[in-house]
Amino acid sequence: MRLGFILGEVGYGLRRNLSMVISVVLVTFVSLTFVGAAALLQMQITQMKGYWYDKVQVAVFLCGEDYGSATCADGAVTDPQRSDIQSMLESAAVKPYVASFEHESKEQALAHFREQFENSAIVDTVTADQLPESFRVSLVDPEKYDVINELFSSMKGVDVVIDQRELLEKIFSIINIASVVAIGIAGVMIVCAVLLVGTTIRLSAFTRRRETGIMRLVGASKASIQLPFVVEGVIAGLLGALLASGVLWGMATFFIDGKLAKEYPDTAFISTGEVFMVAPALILLGVVLAGVSSIVTLRRYLKV
């Protein structure tokens, strides 16, 4: 089997069915882009969980005037109540669960609020009296939130105990949903890509049936007849995978590293390193899907 002959047949087939080949490349590109985006989203979720779960705190919000909870029936938290809460945090029963804690006054809460919402129109409408003071508690084991909640939620002067992980879980749930949608769209597009590869190979085999018939008559092997068609499909799948990898690299470089990472320096984002981990899998997937689809189609429509 001569390499020059195989390459010549591949080039001839690609030129003759150029529009179909471009369609295969584009469909493969779109489908693998969704696959890669879903994989990167999962990596982002994992990275953010590992980063933020070590930083999240339990917020013990104290009573203010006219708060509706039963523990705030006597009005705003008093100095003795505040001291009791702090003493509980420093007690031997709680100390094994608490890594550190700090008191946040209304003024400090306002400063943090203005820092977080500096670009929002509501930043100048909020005053310190409208924000609750609190104790910010970092736990040794974030999974032990229920212990802190049980101990402090019924204390006089405590309005509510909030685990910040619950807020993060809502965000992660939304990202997970987006990831599942991306995987679903990718699955549909992959099916379209496989069918389109099969159609392209079938059309290529039909248009070259005279040549393949002659090759059969002169005793050409099955592999030498089918290999050019398989290579055509693999090349189309490979180009689509390379395009998908390039787009994902561009998003990571210019959007995530170049924009998001600079605007939100305290957030752990994925980088081009994760793209280089995903790209080989996308290339392999594109090549395998195109190759298998080509072989199955040839067995069905190109009898040798």
TrEMBL record:
Keywords: Cell cycle, Cell division, Cell membrane, Membrane, Transmembrane, Transmembrane helix. InterPro entries: ABC3_permease_C, FtsX, FtsX_actino, FtsX_ECD. Pfam families: FtsX (PF02687), FtsX_ECD (PF18075). The keyword Cell membrane applies. Residues 185-303 form the ABC3 transporter permease C-terminal domain. The chain crosses the membrane at residues 20-41, 174-201, 238-256, 276-298. One of its GO terms (biological process) is cell division. The keyword Ribosomal protein does not apply. Residues 56-161 form the FtsX extracellular domain. It comes from the Bacteria. It is found in: Cell membrane. It is a multi-pass membrane protein. Forms a membrane-associated complex with FtsE. Belongs to the ABC-4 integral membrane protein family. FtsX subfamily. Part of the ABC transporter FtsEX involved in cellular division. This is Cell division protein FtsX. It comes from Paeniglutamicibacter kerguelensis.
